[in-house]
């Protein structure tokens, strides 16, 4: 039944009931109208209005649910749909709303994929320029300062040495930024080695204790999935350093036959009622790109946990096995941390802390 006929039927029911009451009830109306008759008529009108309001509320309840749902729709949290109550105008309206949300989610996922791809391309370009242009220029400055220090003496030499140290520290920072923008270890050694290097660098620069727990024999992911997992871990650690006021961080990577799960937890002050910032929205968009499940939840003993569950592609691309084929070389690159699990074939690493 359409919305028009539903409202018509409800009003007809009320008016029909009032007409039947007037026909069969011992009620008369005098001219002029008496006070008692006025009270009865006004009481009957009130009953009609209340009955009409109650029936309309019941009949239009699906529209109220639709209105509430429309105010809570978040394209970064897909899946929210209203049940369609049969056929008719209201059912068609709700079905149309569900179809609209589904199209918006698909368009948002497609636009996010294009935006993130452009973002990664720009990251690679900037990282290359930092490495080639800025890095080489600062290296040339270091060599010039070294020659100046060799040919100077007294207080001038000390000033030149200080300028050398400042330039060297700036060069190291530029290289670190370039590595963060373009994780070459992810392309060369795979996801586990990249997360190991990320955790080690994070612990070095923040002074926090980082524990790594990586399962062995993780399912193979394609290049885009590995990049999303790495970026989510990177942003999660950045948020911990900036906002959590934590002392310990745990990075876990586990896998099943159909998914790979990344969990980054800390013992800080937790998420509380804070609104999603740009970093969290970016993580949600990356998860949406893969159809992955993403959640941020508080922990019972304090702190928070970020969890990303990525579905394993049914047919991994050909480049994934090649990328992991170089993983056996990882132990040499991480010889300083023998317990770090860097190869998929290695046994499961025990809980490990970084200073």
TrEMBL record:
GO MF term list: ATP binding; phosphorelay sensor kinase activity; protein dimerization activity
TM region(s), chain numbering: 7-27, 39-60
Reaction(s) this enzyme catalyzes, per UniProt: ATP + protein L-histidine = ADP + protein N-phospho-L-histidine
EC number(s) from the headed UniProt entry: 2.7.13.3
Cellular compartments per GO CC: membrane
Entry keyword Kinase: yes
Lipid metabolism listed as a keyword: no
Residue ranges, annotated region (Disordered): 331-355
Residue intervals of the HAMP domain: 57-109
Pfam families listed in its UniProt record: HATPase_c (PF02518), HisKA_3 (PF07730)
Coiled coil: none
Subcellular localization(s) per the UniProt record: Membrane
Keywords: ATP-binding, Kinase, Membrane, Nucleotide-binding, Phosphoprotein, Transferase, Transmembrane, Transmembrane helix, Two-component regulatory system
SMART domains: HAMP (SM00304), HATPase_c (SM00387)
Protein name: histidine kinase
Organism classification: Bacteria, Bacillati, Actinomycetota, Actinomycetes, Kitasatosporales
């Amino acid at each position: 039944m359409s919305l028009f006929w539903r409202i018509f039927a409800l009003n007809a029911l009320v008016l029909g009931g009032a007409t039947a009451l007037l026909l069969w009830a011992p009620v008369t109306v005098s001219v002029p109208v008496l006070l008692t008759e006025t009270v009865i008529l006004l009481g009957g009108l009130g009953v009609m209005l209340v009955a009409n309001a109650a029936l309309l509320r019941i009949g239009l309840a699906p529209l109220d649910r639709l209105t509430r749902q429309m105010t809570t729709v978040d394209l970064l949290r897909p899946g929210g749909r209203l049940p369609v109550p049969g056929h008719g105008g209201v059912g068609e309206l709700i079905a149309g709303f569900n179809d609209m949300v589904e199209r918006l989610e698909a368009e948002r996922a497609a636009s996010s994929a294009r935006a993130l791809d452009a973002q990664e391309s720009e990251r690679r370009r900037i990282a290359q320029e930092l490495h080639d242009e800025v890095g080489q220029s600062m290296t040339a400055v270091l060599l010039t300062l070294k020659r100046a220090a060799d040919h100077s003496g007294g207080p001038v030499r000390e000033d030149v040495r200080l300028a050398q140290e400042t330039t060297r520290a700036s060069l190291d920072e530029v290289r670190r930024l370039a590595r963060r923008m373009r994780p070459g270890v992810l392309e060369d050694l795979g996801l586990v080695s990249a997360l190991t290097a990320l955790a080690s660098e994070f612990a070095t620069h923040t002074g926090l204790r980082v524990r790594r727990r990586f399962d062995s024999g993780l399912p193979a992911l394609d290049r885009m999935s590995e990049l999303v997992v790495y970026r989510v871990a990177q942003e999660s650690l950045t948020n911990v350093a900036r906002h959590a006021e934590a002392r310990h961080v745990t990075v876990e990577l586990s896998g099943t036959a159909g998914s790979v799960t990344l969990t980054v937890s800390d013992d800080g002050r937790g998420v509380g009622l804070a609104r999603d910032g740009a970093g969290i929205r970016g993580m949600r968009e990356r998860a949406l790109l893969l159809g992955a499940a993403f959640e941020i939840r508080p922990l019972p003993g304090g702190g928070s946990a970020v969890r990303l569950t990525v579905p394993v592609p049914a047919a991994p691309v050909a480049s994934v096995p090649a990328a992991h084929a170089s993983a056996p070389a990882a132990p040499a690159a991480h010889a300083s941390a023998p317990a770090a699990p860097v190869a998929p074939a290695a046994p499961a690493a025990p809980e490990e802390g970084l200073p």
